[in-house]
Specification:
about 30% helix, elongated
C-alpha cells in the first residue's frame, strides 16, 4: 500500500488478533465500514489452521491463545 493513499472508514481497529478480528467482523456485518491495522505479518488462514491442528497440547479451543504468558 502506498503511504500517500487516503483511506476512510467509520471505525478503525488497531490489531487483528482474536478480539480485533471478531469486532471488525461484527461491525462489517452491521453495515459499518471498518479498517483494521495490523503491524504483524499476514498469516494465511490455512497455515494458521494447520498449525492449530498440529499443536501437541490443545487444552481448549483457545489453545493457540493461552491466558498466561
Amino acid at each position: 500500500m502506498s503511504s500517500d493513499q487516503n483511506l476512510s472508514a467509520d471505525v478503525v481497529i488497531v490489531g487483528s488478533g482474536v478480539a480485533g478480528s471478531s469486532i471488525a467482523n461484527e461491525l462489517a456485518r452491521a453495515g459499518i465500514s471498518v479498517i483494521v491495522l495490523e503491524a504483524g505479518p499476514r498469516v494465511d488462514r490455512q497455515h494458521f489452521v494447520d498449525n492449530f491442528r498440529n499443536l501437541e497440547n490443545k487444552p481448549s479451543y483457545q489453545g493457540p491463545f493461552p491466558s498466561t504468558p
